[in-house]
Specification:
Elements lengths: L2 H21 L33 E7 L8 E7 L2 E9 L4 H16 L4 E3 L9 E13 L4 E11 L5 E10 L6 H23 L1
Parallel strand pairs: 1-4, 1-5, 2-5
Antiparallel strand pairs: 2-3, 5-6, 6-7
Helix pairs in contact: 2-3
Length: 198
């Protein structure tokens, strides 16, 4: 086989590869930035807590319905339709982010040991868990809504439930304002739950 023949066979192969590379996508473009939840106040460096495992507060087991159990921000268009906010993406699932935020809020406000799902599972006297019922944007009212059904399991395994909610109105359907408002509302709900836990 001559060099000319080899080249003639190679040209169509290279051309086909180039054509396919223009058609194949290895995933969508990532958003310019990712959203997260940041506590308004955190314990200063060097602070800590001392106590028994039984006196600790364990924060774990937060979940969410499938529409929220994703890293996208749901938009409630009407009573029966949900979309997702363009270019808005969380760094982790909202239930996990809220659980971490609540644990940090409790650490800042309590002298007791506070663990969350990533910590060892102590036999704590007090356990806090729950479900994110709403955690997104409501298009009809131009507001973000954070609604959490919390479960408090106390000493002697007495169980109490309560719904907590915070709405921030007047928010445009844009990534920056929605992310900021969701962080504000989530912090408010975490403070409410911390007050309830005591």
């Amino acid at each position: 086989m001559t060099a000319t023949t080899k080249f003639a066979r190679l040209v169509p192969t290279v051309g086909l590869a180039l054509a396919l590379s223009a058609c194949i996508s290895f995933g969508s473009e990532p958003p310019p930035s990712l959203l997260t939840l940041t506590p308004e106040r955190t314990p200063v460096a060097g602070t800590g807590a001392r106590g028994t495992a039984g006196g600790a507060i364990a924060v774990s087991g937060f979940d969410a319905p499938k529409s929220i159990a994703v890293t996208r921000v749901p938009v409630q268009i009407d009573a029966s339709n949900i979309a997702y906010l363009e270019d808005a993406q969380w760094v982790d699932r909202p239930a996990r982010l809220f659980q971490t935020l609540l644990a940090e809020t409790l650490r800042n406000r309590s002298s007791r040991i506070v663990t969350d799902g990533s910590d060892p599972d102590f036999a704590a006297d007090t356990r806090v868990r729950g479900s994110l019922v709403s955690f997104g944007y409501d298009a009809q009212s131009s507001s973000v809504v954070v609604r959490v059904d919390a479960v408090l399991e106390g000493k002697g395994r007495e169980i109490t439930t309560r719904r907590f909610e915070q709405t921030v109105p007047g928010i445009p359907a844009e990534v920056g304002p929605v992310g900021t408002a969701l962080n504000e509302a989530a912090n408010d709900v975490a403070q409410q739950i911390a007050d309830w836990v005591g």
